[in-house]
């Protein structure tokens, strides 16, 4: 009985051992299948996630590189246009300078001619005044001589009447002789006065002709002076216009030079940022390739471990640890990608800051233009002062000429 029980116990223990062994084998098989399935799912998930991150990162960086390249091309085109405008503006400013020098030389020559003509005009006015005074004196002498002639003629008529009356009344011969002598003397004085009067008329006519010639010469001189005055005004206006055009050309050259310098700075900064982005993209691609190599190595290890179910537990643990490491690498890659995105955002912010700086410099340029306009206004004021002095001198010459004309009118 005890032997049977012992045998039964042995059979039960053997059966339990077999069942335990079968259970262990089934558990190991299930664990191996589960490990393979888990590794397959993890591998697919890891590959999909890695490919997605790599494709997204490469697409974003490629797009940013394209945008940077477009911005660089636009800046380079603006630089070329500014350079062309500057090359065209420099010869224009030089030509304006030469034309302004020519205008200044012409103005100086005209001023010199006006001074010489003013001296000649003054001399002619003085001569005309002398002629007027001489004509007045001749007219006064003519009037006095005419009165004297009338008096002599009146005396001659008186003596002639007295002589006739004495002849009719048979006066004393001595009285007749005295009357005849007085009559002859009166006639002789009247004749001399008539001759002198004729000479005075001839002198007056010559004086009047000379006066007319002097007035004609004075009119010609005045006409020439007025023409020179008009020419001087035109030259002064042309000089002012050219000064304004020259100031505008010089300001345009300075603005273009400043714009060209700003374009150069922006191109340098853009090239530097473009190179940095390319280097960062190359570094990201290298990192992605290293990550892909690790994934391939992990796949190789997974295949080897799938064939060795005896070492499933330890290998599964190691693979899980490697999977954690790879996840950490993926996290680092994501963190680096975010860091690069932050750097790109900083680059964009720097570009916007540069644009704001350019706006600030534009405001400074406007302030400089305002100052230049103020200086130009001051220069215009000085020019107006010089023109006023010239106009005052012209007015003095004009008043002298009007005075001479009035003297001629009084003489006439």
What descriptors fit this protein?
412 residues; mainly alpha; 97% helix; 0% strand; rod-shaped; coiled coil
- Cα separation of the termini: 187 Å
Number of strands: 0
Oligomer description = single chain
Protein structure class: mainly alpha
Helix content: over 70%
Rounded to an integer, what's the Rg over CA atoms?
Answer: 62 Å
- Average pLDDT over all residues: 71
Helical segment count: 3
Shape: rod-shaped
**Strand residue percentage:** under 5%
Report low-confidence residues grouped into runs of 5 or more. Answer: none
Main sheet summary: none
Structure description:
Residues 1-29 form a coiled coil. The chain is mainly alpha-helical and 412 residues long. The protein contains 3 helices and no strands. Helix 1 (2-168) packs parallel to helix 3 (312-411) and helix 2 packs antiparallel against helix 3. It is rod-shaped. The protein starts with a helix and ends with a helix.
């Amino acid at each position: 009985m005890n032997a049977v029980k012992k045998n039964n116990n042995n059979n039960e223990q053997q059966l339990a051992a077999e069942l335990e062994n079968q259970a262990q084998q089934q558990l190991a098989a299930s664990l191996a299948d589960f490990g393979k399935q888990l590794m397959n799912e993890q591998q697919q998930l890891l590959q999909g996630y890695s490919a997605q991150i790599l494709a997204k990162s490469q697409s974003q960086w490629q797009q940013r590189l394209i945008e940077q390249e477009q911005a660089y091309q636009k800046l380079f085109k603006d630089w070329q246009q500014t350079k062309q405008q500057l090359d065209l503006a420099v010869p224009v400013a030089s030509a304006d300078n030469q034309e302004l020098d020519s205008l200044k030389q012409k103005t100086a020559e005209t001023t010199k001619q006006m001074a010489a003509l003013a001296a000649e005009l003054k001399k002619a006015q003085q001569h005309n005044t002398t002629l007027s005074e001489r004509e007045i004196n001749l007219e006064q002498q003519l009037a006095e001589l005419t009165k004297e002639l009338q008096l002599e003629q009146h005396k001659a008529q008186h003596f002639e009447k007295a002589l006739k009356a004495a002849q009719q009344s048979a006066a004393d011969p001595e009285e007749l002789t005295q009357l005849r002598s007085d009559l002859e003397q009166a006639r002789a004085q009247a004749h001399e006065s008539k001759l002198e009067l004729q000479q005075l008329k001839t002198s007056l006519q010559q004086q009047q002709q000379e006066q007319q010639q002097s007035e004609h010469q004075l009119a010609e001189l005045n006409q020439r002076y007025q023409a020179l005055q008009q020419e001087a005004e035109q030259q002064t206006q042309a000089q002012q216009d050219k000064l304004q055009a020259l100031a505008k050309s010089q300001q345009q050259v300075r603005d273009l030079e400043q714009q060209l310098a700003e374009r150069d700075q922006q191109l340098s900064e853009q090239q530097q940022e473009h190179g940095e982005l390319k280097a960062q993209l190359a570094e990201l691609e290298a990192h992605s390739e290293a990550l892909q190599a690790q994934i391939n190595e992990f796949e190789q290890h997974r295949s080897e471990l799938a064939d060795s179910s005896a070492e499933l537990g330890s290998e599964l643990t190691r693979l899980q640890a490697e999977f954690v490491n790879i996840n950490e690498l993926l996290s680092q890659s994501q963190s680096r990608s975010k860091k690069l995105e932050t750097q790109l955002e900083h680059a964009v912010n720097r570009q916007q800051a540069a644009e704001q700086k350019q706006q600030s410099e534009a405001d400074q340029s406007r302030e400089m233009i305002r100052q230049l306009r103020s200086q130009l206004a001051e220069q215009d004021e000085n020019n107006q002062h010089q023109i006023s002095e010239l106009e005052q001198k012209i007015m003095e010459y004009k008043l002298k000429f009007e005075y001479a004309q009035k003297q001629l009118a009084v003489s006439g």
